[in-house]
Amino acid sequence: MITRKSKREIEKMQAAGDLLVKTHKEVAKMIKPGITTMEIDTFVEEFLRQHGATPEQKGFNGYPYAICASVNDEICHGFPSEKPLKDGDIVTIDMVVNLDGGLADSAWTYAVGTIDEVGKRLMEVTKNSLYKGIEQAQVGKRIGDIGHAIQTHAEGEGFSVVRDFTGHGIGPTIHEDPLIPHYGLPNKGLRLKEGMVITIEPMINEGDWKSKMDDNGWTARTIDGGRSIQYEHTLVITKDGPLIMTDQDKE
Q1: Residues annotated in the binding site for substrate, as ranges?
Q2: How far is CA 154 from the centre of its chain?
Q3: From which residue to which does any coiled coil extend (predicted)?
Q4: Can you say which residues are annotated as belonging to the binding site for a divalent metal cation?
Q5: What CATH number is associated with residue 104?
Q6: What is the pLDDT of residues 17-59, one digit of tens each?
Q7: Is pLDDT of 205 > 90?
Q8: What is the domain range of residue 128?
């Protein structure tokens, strides 16, 4: 069932989005060689608690952590670990904030120290793909328009689009209908309506798009060891265009 959010629901989700942005900005300061993703996980949970919020994914279907921390060839749902990040790594931190029942979801990828030129380009192309998808999130457009814009850009730059994981509706739970694939055909799929709140979260690989699962049953990684990048925003469909609720550059 697809729900369209009330003004009050959107306000609560926006408050969660504002806190999520604040959290990501604190995480960005922590990213450097030598830090562990478990340290980041501990920080995030405490930071949210101090601000009256909780990490919504902790306990969701048994997931044990406040964040997902996916390093290099991990596509998504990477477990935080005690292994220090090293110079040249690429890490995606993904989190869902619950503030007074309002939810917001955003993943951001960070370079650890100095990364190579291909890694830099992969990050840039993935971020651009996200925003090209968001441009299509308009009243009357279709879900296929979002995926087509992302796929066309990423594949045009020589990278591949993960198909096994998608964006989704959000609120009142983490994963709601509809699914938002990051590939597809224009003018196909469900028509977008005012008040829908969705995530767009392309995962773009430098090699093959296919994934394999770790033994933990959560972490997906590339089949060829290539790196994977993800950027994600939560946004609401409005009559004036998409409103990004997790925008880090509002000012």
Answers
A1: 77, 175
A2: 16
A3: none
A4: 94, 105, 168, 201, 232
A5: 3.90.230.10
A6: 999 999 999 999 999 999 999 999 999 999 999 999 999 999 9
A7: yes
A8: 7-244
